[in-house]
Design brief:
By secondary structure, the protein is of the alpha+beta class. The protein is about 30% helix and about 20% strand. It contains twelve helices and ten strands. Strand 7 and strand 8 form a beta hairpin. The longest helix is centred in the first third of the chain and has 14 residues.
């Protein structure tokens, strides 16, 4: 018994030979996921977002069309149907982009045979030096006109890259998954579920950003103590449906109830947080907070400005 226990503690095979030592450099790491068009849009976009990006916002137009009962909508649909979709989407849903190409839709349709209504999803990200984006085009779209519009530099397509094989138009995207957000498992784990729009942030939000006129030193002792007790927060994501929104903070977090309560004890945001996000429900085992969407425009504005109290950095 003593000999067997000794062998177990020494990680030997009890035959007198120790297990071979494998240098860390020889341990095979999991490959970084490449771009996969079959993934949910926010998950697919991860492989295209450069590692230096700080925030990502994805709008899934196919999902929006489905939820708004216009799933067959394309540039070939009537002008009335297309206008109705955009009016309903702006009024009823959270959209982080109202369509990159819409400002030149008329010219694109007349001269090149496509419009924003042929875009399946759109991803935009911010970096310290500017903004990048990707558009994914529908599978049955004739791409000849797209290629010509990009060559002609029409509107925002000026300077864009075109990957006809993957049906992607992009600006400042990366073609190296190892230098993308897909290389960070903490971020990829936050996305992949169906959503009309998804917001992903690379880190917790500093107090003076979450509350534009705020200074943490002005907090009363009780809320300051609550903020000091919060667990550290890294990347997080917010996924939106037509009626519901889910905040993903990471697996198994003991502070989700505290974070869900923060809007009630901290200064008001502008617009007021409770106007966009109502009826919070916390799930510690999944690291999630669920809300009902109040005013979609307020919910979008709060995320775009990073006025999200539940994601504030601990003190």
């Amino acid at each position: 018994m003593g000999a067997l226990l000794g062998c177990a503690l020494l990680l030997t095979s009890c035959s007198g030979e120790e297990e071979p030592f494998v240098p860390p450099s020889l341990i095979e790491e999991a490959p970084v996921p490449a771009y996969d068009p079959a993934l949910e849009p926010a998950a697919a976009a991860m492989a295209l977002v450069p590692s230096e990006a700080t925030v990502l916002a994805v709008t899934d137009y196919d999902e929006l069309r489905l939820r708004l009962a216009q799933s067959e909508l394309t540039s070939e649909s009537s002008a009335a149907a297309r206008d109705r979709f955009w009016r309903n989407a702006a009024r009823r849903t959270v959209m982080f982009s109202d369509g990159l190409l819409r400002g030149v839709d008329e010219r694109l349709l007349d001269d090149y045979g496509f419009t924003q209504d042929d875009v399946i999803w759109e991803a935009r990200w911010g970096t310290p030096s500017g903004e990048g984006w990707v558009l994914r085009l529908r599978d049955d779209l004739d791409l000849d006109g797209v290629a010509r519009a990009i060559r002609d530099g029409v509107g925002p397509l000026d300077g864009a890259d075109f990957d006809a094989g993957r049906r992607l138009i992009s600006l400042d995207a990366t073609d190296e998954p190892t230098d993308s957000w897909a290389a960070d498992p903490a971020r990829t784990a936050l996305v992949g579920r169906p959503a009309t729009s998804t917001y992903v942030d690379s880190a917790c939000i500093p107090y003076d950003v979450a509350f534009a006129d705020g200074d943490a030193s002005d907090l009363a002792p009780a809320p300051a103590e609550e903020m000091g007790a919060l667990d550290e927060l890294g990347p997080f994501a917010v996924s939106y449906g037509v009626d519901l929104v889910t905040v993903h903070l990471g697996q198994v977090r003991n502070d989700v109830f505290d974070r869900a309560r923060l809007p009630d004890i901290l200064p008001r945001t502008d617009p007021e947080f409770a106007v966009g996000y109502v009826e919070p429900v916390a799930d510690p085992s999944g690291g999630r907070i669920g809300y009902t969407i109040g005013d979609p425009a307020a919910a979008e504005s709060l995320a775009r400005q990073r006025h999200l109290p539940f994601a504030v950095c601990s003190l």
